[in-house]
Amino acid sequence: MTDIDDLRDLLGAPAYSGPPFNWEAASAAIGANIPADFRALVNAFGPGDIGTDVVLLAPGHPDSDYDQIGVHRERRAGLAEIWETELDGPPEFISKPAVFNEPGVEPVLWGYSTLGYYMYWVAKPGQDPASWRLALDVARDGSWEFHSGPVTSFLLGLLRGQITSRHLYFLSETEQHTFTPAPE
Questions:
Q1: How far apart are CA 153 and CA 103, in angstroms?
Q2: CA 131 → CA 7, 18, 91, distances in Å?
Q3: 60-88 pLDDT, tens digit each
Q4: The pTM is what?
Q5: Which residue ranges make up each domain of the chain?
Q6: Which SS3 state, helix, strand or coil, does residue 147 take?
Q7: What are the pLDDT digits (tens) for 122-180?
Q8: Residues 165 and 172: beta-carbon distance below 8 Å
Q9: Tally of CA atoms within 13 A in the half-sphere of 122 that contains its CB
Q10: In whole angstroms, how far apart are CA 154 and each of 6, 80, 141, 147?
């Protein structure tokens, strides 16, 4: 079984039956290739809610809360503004992780939590997207958590309680083991 099969069993996710996603256009709009495991996950499930608080995004979804491209652009603009204003402040108040100061390295959004957490890939130019690390931004306090990918293994590990996260720990609770498709 694959991680996607295991996630489907654990979450009871129905098969996605909506229109296909244009991953090439999505990658162009976002400015980075979207990892294959995520494309396969979204092709299998579609966008929706994992448990009560985690939102899995998909490119071009008509509901703006689930549109990966739109939410990514909003978040990137927000981060750019925050990071720009922090440049004039004391170093202890800078929330931008050093990895994003490396040339060409960008946060690429794949999901978020309604509790104020944003989930990204750490997209490094020239690196295989399958090996990108994952980053969790806690918007309200500027702290970040980093994890190994891919997204499918990360989600499965969180749901099974095999990955420790200071902020997404609740996904290991059985009542969070659901998937609700996004409204069409």
A1: 28
A2: 20, 29, 30
A3: 999 999 999 999 999 999 999 988 888 77
A4: 0.94
A5: 3-15+22-181
A6: strand
A7: 999 999 999 999 999 987 777 899 999 999 999 999 999 999 999 999 999 999 999 99
A8: no
A9: 21
A10: 12, 26, 23, 8
